[in-house]
UniProtKB/TrEMBL annotation:
<keyword id="KW-0489">Methyltransferase</keyword>
<dbReference type="GO" id="GO:0008168">
    <property type="term" value="F:methyltransferase activity"/>
</dbReference>
<dbReference type="GO" id="GO:0032259">
    <property type="term" value="P:methylation"/>
</dbReference>
<dbReference type="Pfam" id="PF13847">
    <property type="entry name" value="Methyltransf_31"/>
</dbReference>
<dbReference type="InterPro" id="IPR048711">
    <property type="entry name" value="WHD_Rv2258c"/>
</dbReference>
<dbReference type="InterPro" id="IPR053173">
    <property type="entry name" value="SAM-binding_MTase"/>
</dbReference>
<dbReference type="InterPro" id="IPR029063">
    <property type="entry name" value="SAM-dependent_MTases_sf"/>
</dbReference>
<dbReference type="Pfam" id="PF21320">
    <property type="entry name" value="WHD_Rv2258c"/>
</dbReference>
<dbReference type="InterPro" id="IPR036390">
    <property type="entry name" value="WH_DNA-bd_sf"/>
</dbReference>
<dbReference type="InterPro" id="IPR025714">
    <property type="entry name" value="Methyltranfer_dom"/>
</dbReference>
<protein>
    <submittedName>
        <fullName>Class I SAM-dependent methyltransferase</fullName>
    </submittedName>
</protein>
<feature type="domain" description="Methyltransferase">
    <location>
        <begin position="178"/>
        <end position="287"/>
    </location>
</feature>
<feature type="domain" description="S-adenosylmethionine-dependent methyltransferase Rv2258c-like winged HTH">
    <location>
        <begin position="34"/>
        <end position="103"/>
    </location>
</feature>
<dbReference type="InterPro" id="IPR036388">
    <property type="entry name" value="WH-like_DNA-bd_sf"/>
</dbReference>
<keyword id="KW-0808">Transferase</keyword>
Length: 363
């Protein structure tokens, strides 16, 4: 019956042609992201940032890379209209408009985000097994994830931490100057905490993360910086609702960390438990609807659902968790914040960040 019904549906050849064109375009644009990721990690983009024309040999010398690979990369970048090529002089140039978006010379380095697709591709076989048998992919399989997340945070959190994020709770800057207790959960490599600890030496800072690699990196970096008011600890937060010290912290922060927890509601209940009565919880998390149809116009919706499948949902399920997923959305967030016991719930968006919401929560 189903096959017969499908056979009677009219086939729209224009729609098929449009999707075919879109697919070919997506293949090329996805390949450009791979080229950008390679160029970001290898230093090619940094060396092209001055906008001066160079030959492949000159660029290879500047970067210390193999000329044959550099030349082939330049070929792909030329075809992608990423760089400009002068066939008379056999030189290549990164336009300043591209350099402003793909190097550290601009307001944000978008090349950082190009790393996500090749990074996720490394675990495609693992994720495919989860489609077939359930379960998830553990953190240990993502060899560079915390490195890339630290760069990501450098685009969305660090540049506006003092001027835009902390002032969402107007009393925080002065309280930090006077000296309070601060906890960052899912801290990764701890770059936000390091900036806070440097700026506010009278306050005391603690960071927890599940990743041994991330905590090790953060601890060594903090020691080199001489930050005696900062402590990092590897910790599973699945039971934080029971193990969180009661009324111990004045400020708790999470930066894109709730949605990939094994038991996010337990973590939120623990945050409420550990906050003092005049405390503040600042949460950065993905801007989305909790309903698929509500995300149709999301400017990064396809990417974020893909990240959810390939990482955030999967690492939660690998711990026997809920698998909340990247796109849990505002509606589900409000529900969970309410269940956790927060009495005051505010949500904001900041102009520089189309990807995230910024929540201010109080007991």
């Amino acid at each position: 019956m189903t096959a017969h019904a499908n056979a009677s549906v009219a086939f729209d050849t224009d729609r098929a042609a449009d999707f075919e064109n879109r697919f070919v375009h997506a293949l090329n644009e996805g390949a450009m992201l791979q080229l950008i990721s390679l160029a970001h990690r290898s230093g090619l983009l940094a060396q092209l940032a001055d906008g001066e024309p160079v030959t492949s040999s000159e660029l290879a010398v500047k970067t210390g890379l193999d000329e044959r690979y550099v030349r082939e990369w330049l070929g792909g970048a030329t075809v992608a209209a990423l760089v400009e090529h002068d066939p008379r002089t056999m030189t290549y140039r990164l336009p300043p408009e591209h350099a402003a978006l793909l190097t550290d010379g601009g307001e944000a380095n978008l090349a950082v985000f190009a790393q996500y697709l090749p990074l996720m591709g490394q675990v495609e076989d693992d994720v495919l097994e989860c489609f077939r048998h359930g379960g998830g992919v553990p953190y240990t399989r993502y060899t560079r994830f915390h490195e890339v997340m630290a760069e990501d945070s450098g685009q969305t959190v660090l540049p506006v931490l003092f001027d835009a994020i902390l002032p969402l709770a107007p009393e925080l800057p002065e309280r930090l100057v006077q000296g309070i207790d601060v906890l960052d959960l899912g801290c990764g490599r701890g770059l936000a905490l390091m900036k806070l600890a440097e700026r506010f030496p009278a306050s005391r800072f603690t960071g927890y993360d599940l990743s041994k690699e991330a905590i090790g990196w953060a601890t060594q970096r903090a020691a080199r910086l001489g930050l005696g008011n900062l402590h990092f600890e590897q910790r599973d937060l699945s039971d934080f609702d029971r193990t969180a010290p009661a009324q111990h912290y004045d400020l708790v922060t999470t930066f894109d960390a709730i949605h990939d927890q094994a038991h996010p509601l337990n973590l939120l209940k623990g945050i409420r438990r550990t906050l003092r009565e005049d405390g503040v919880y600042l949460a950065q998390d993905i801007h989305a609807s909790s309903h698929h149809h509500g995300d149709r116009e999301h400017p990064m919706g396809t990417l974020l659902y893909t990240v959810s499948i390939m990482h955030c949902m999967s690492v939660s399920l690998a711990q026997g968790g809920e698998g909340l997923g990247t796109m849990w959305g505002r509606e589900k967030a409000r529900e969970y914040f309410g269940k956790a016991g927060f009495g005051s719930i505010e949500v904001h968006q900041l102009p520089h960040d189309i990807q995230n919401d910024y929540w201010v929560l109080r007991p």
